[in-house]
């Protein structure tokens, strides 16, 4: 059994509570797809992508948080292994939702720049975790 540090336990608690924000995104998405909230085809696709990425990445991020406890990584490397995916779980959905925000938008705004930053955070987190697990 993996013993959680206080930091990992606190992070996991905050992330578990943050799932409510994903649920509220789902409620908004339901309003969009049922026509109760106006959206262009572009916006619908970006909102769907944002919601899907949020749910999947929070789940993967919790797994990475737990598995990071089984590594011998320390300092910034341990932080990256345990929370890189969780940082991506914020940046990627934010990039999808915020770059599509605005009445009648048919193309992303400048906040689309959050997408590659989020992808980089996810990649850095899983690679660091993988190396940490293989070298533990």
UniProtKB/TrEMBL annotation:
This is DUF423 domain-containing protein. Keywords: Membrane, Transmembrane, Transmembrane helix. The chain crosses the membrane at residues 12-33, 54-73, 79-99, 111-134. It comes from Cellulomonas wangleii.
């Amino acid at each position: 059994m993996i013993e959680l540090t206080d930091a990992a336990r606190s992070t996991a608690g905050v992330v578990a509570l943050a799932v409510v924000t994903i649920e509220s995104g789902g409620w908004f998405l339901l309003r969009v797809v049922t026509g109760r909230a106006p959206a262009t085809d572009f916006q619908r696709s970006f909102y769907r992508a944002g919601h899907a990425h949020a749910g999947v990445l929070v789940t993967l991020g919790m797994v990475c948080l737990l598995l990071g406890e089984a590594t011998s990584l320390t300092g910034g490397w341990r932080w990256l292994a345990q929370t890189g995916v969780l940082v991506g779980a914020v940046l990627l959905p934010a990039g999808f939702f915020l770059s599509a925000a605005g009445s009648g938008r048919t193309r992303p705004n400048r906040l689309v720049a959050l997408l590659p930053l989020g992808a980089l955070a996810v990649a850095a987190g899983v690679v660091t975790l993988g190396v940490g697990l293989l070298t533990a």
